[in-house]
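Re: beginner question about structure tokens

> Can someone show what the tokenized structure looks like for a real chain? I only ever see the sequence side.

Sure, here's an example I had lying around. Input first:
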Amino acid sequence: MPNSIFNNKNIAFFNPRQDFATNPSLLCLTEEFIKHNAHVDVYMPGLYMRGCGRYPPLEGNISQYPFPRKLEFWAGEVGKTLSNWKWYFVHSSWKAERILKEKKYDLVFGIDSEGIIAAYQYASRNRVPIVYICYEIIFRDELLRRSDYKEKDSEIKASQRADMVIIQDKWRAKLLADENNLDEQQFIYLPVSPRSSSTIQRTNYLRKRFNIPNGKIVVLHSGSFEDWTYAEELIDSVPKWPEKVVLVIHTRYSPVKKHKYISRIQENNFENIILSTEPLYRQAYEQMVASADIGLVLYKKRPVFKSLQKNIETIGFSSGKFSYYMKYGLPVIAAGGGTYHELLKEYHFGISLNSFDEMPEALSKVISCYQKHSDEAKRLFSEKLAFDLYWPATSRKLAHLLRSRNHRIAW
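And the corresponding structure tokens:
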């Protein structure tokens, strides 16, 4: 692919959440575009909104605009309708609509359900290529609300019009293809993962920041700290852990909203639990991961929530923290879903729990075979996860879309 294919191209990402700067594959994509002189805009909600936790802002030469949620006078339910009005008027979706009328993009990306719907609305008016990036698969048979059914119908329609679908792996591709009636020939794999580095070095980030003694083994739980990531079970388990092990919980946290598990830790002053609640830029985040010894990847199905059922049961390569752990050679203790059971047959990067009661014993087993698990983690990253493995095929397909723009058939 000639490096000039993205030169002076205008590219937009429609992301309905605030987490763009914490997604390594999105950051790597935008870096590649900017490296080749493309202009990148991201449409997403504003940062640090009340009750939504905290995220690091975007870095680099990227422009951010409000997410364009379409105004609906009736969204199917009172609560959904009021939320829609709030987003439109308070969080400036109306401004995004005005901006989009003036913008001329060569390529647009829609992220997840709301993102592909918004991207399709723009692409269908302007006849530009559209790419669906699916990180959360929503299943119709798991929905409860009328508004969710309506959104699912719109997502299916938009995804079927996409010129290309980015999914993390073969397991999730099969689920999405069956659910949305898509042709897997449209799919290209891109795990949620950072790029590889020429040198991987350990750091003292966590030990220095929290004054952790050198003799301690640091176990890291990174990301959401909720019921569905075994927060309660993890807190209850720590007193049974080997004495030399300390748990660091790194999570986004909104001080204006009480968090039951964060508050429990703060109020009880657990000796072997350390809280890290400040959002980190990617470089600092990688330094943090590189200073831990063991990583936790814990997922539990929650039947009430549409993205916490089959979507996390087959987590596949959609866990960014898992990829970061593998990159830095952190053995992993996993719970939930069959992906890690299957991967462990080929890569012995740690242990997958059958029951959470096994956690203390699993820690002892990982510690006793630490170097083997660490080496296998790095091997898995270099053979299956690194962004660099997937960018050549992805860039060729994107280049084809850009070259064929002038020959597109009318929608």
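Each token stands for a local structural state, so reading them left to right follows the chain. Confidence is low (pLDDT under 50) at residues 48-53, 407-411.
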